[in-house]
From TrEMBL:
This is Uncharacterized protein. InterPro entries: TAT_signal (IPR006311). Residues 1-31 form the signal peptide. Keywords: Signal.
């Protein structure tokens, strides 16, 4: 576990004291380095270590939407594993809520709804972690493979039954429409 130092400044006295500070959480457990691969996040200079396959596709979709619709991501802002993705782990402290504005939470809920509830947001966890996304199924799950196919197929504009599939890539969703908000609320209730 890494140790951090918390600098406490005395008010009026001009005294500074360094106290040891341990993070009350651990970053996601990583798989063996050989099983993870580095992936670039489209539109950013960021890369993240993820398990190749459907899980990576879904996590990269979430990171891309976060980057385009919530806040800019930079190199070093992402920590991945086989079943979790942490966005800016130092910014969104575990157990703390309110780090995101209401419109940003709306976008996150839309991302979760677009992923059919196969991706969970850490802000809804018993101990909230607003910068974390986790899978709700195993990385090789058939439903996750189907979702990844839909997300990656629509991003490349692939043909589905002879016609172009509806785009769900970053920047194309309208998370504020009534139908999408209702869908996001339904998914949120199912996940409780």
């Amino acid at each position: 576990m890494r140790r951090r130092t918390l600098l406490v400044l005395g008010a009026g006295a001009g005294v500074a004291t360094a106290l040891p500070f341990s993070l009350p959480f651990s970053l996601p457990a990583t798989a063996a380095p050989a099983s993870l691969r580095s992936f670039p996040v489209e539109g950013t200079d960021a890369t993240v270590q993820l398990l190749p396959g459907p899980a990576a596709t879904v996590f990269l979709y979430a990171a891309r939407r976060f980057h385009y619709e919530i806040d800019t991501l930079h190199a070093g802002d992402l920590v991945g594993s086989t079943d979790a993705l942490d966005l800016r782990p130092g910014w969104y402290a575990p157990g703390v809520t309110g780090g995101l504005l209401p419109y940003q939470v709306t976008v996150i809920r839309d991302i979760i709804a677009e992923c059919d509830g196969l991706l969970a947001w850490g802000g809804d966890a018993a101990v909230p972690q607003e910068g974390r996304f986790t899978l709700t199924v195993a990385p090789g799950n058939a439903r996750l493979r189907a979702l990844a196919g839909r997300l990656s197929g629509s991003l490349s504009g692939s043909l589905t039954r002879g016609r172009r599939s509806a785009r769900v890539g970053a920047g194309t969703a309208l998370p504020y429409t009534e139908a999408r908000r209702r869908r996001a609320e339904k998914i949120q209730k199912m996940m409780r």
